[in-house]
Amino acid sequence: QVQLVESGGGLVQAGGSLRLSCASSGNIARLSIMAWYRQAPGKERELVARIRDSGETFYADSVTGRFTISRDNAKNTWYLQMNSLKPEDTAVYYCNAYRRTSIEGGIEIWGQGTLVTVSS
Q: For 21-33, how does the pLDDT look when each residue is reduced to its tens digit (9 = 90+)?
């Protein structure tokens, strides 16, 4: 089973930056989608950013222009660079991956989360 491990979370002041990493035990070149989700206190999980193997990216409206998702195939790791952080970015951030097993479907994998706290 492929395992995903997040790192890079912590406490930062508003306006600051953090870079989250998601290290995969498997070859991320086999992943069709790599993503970051977050769950803020009292709120449901939401998609933050997503990158496809093609390089196509997607960002939630709330983070576009501030966050950047990228990947490093050689390190089997993908990242979320978070700039201009706001208190409303405070959440547990989870990395997520989708590995295609056939053209019709695949397997979804989740990390255990890393806490990001942004103080005002």
A: 999 999 998 899 9
Given a cut of 80, whether residue 1 has pLDDT beyond it is no
What is the band of 101 on the pLDDT scale with cuts at 50, 70, 90?
confident
The DSSP bridge pattern shows strands 114-119 and 105-110 to be: unpaired
**Which tokens in the block code for residue 70?**
């990228």
Q: What is each CA distance from 107 to 47, 63, 76, in whole angstroms? A: 17, 27, 17
3-state helix, strand, coil in the chain (%, to 5): 10, 55, 35
3-state secondary structure of 105: strand
Q: How many CB atoms lie within 10 A of CB 57?
A: 13
18, 87, 90 from 14: Cα distances, Å: 11, 6, 10
CB neighbours of residue 88 within 10 Å: 12
Average predicted confidence (pLDDT) for the chain: 96
Task: Name 43's Cβ contacts closer than 8 Å, sequence gap at least 6.
Answer: 91
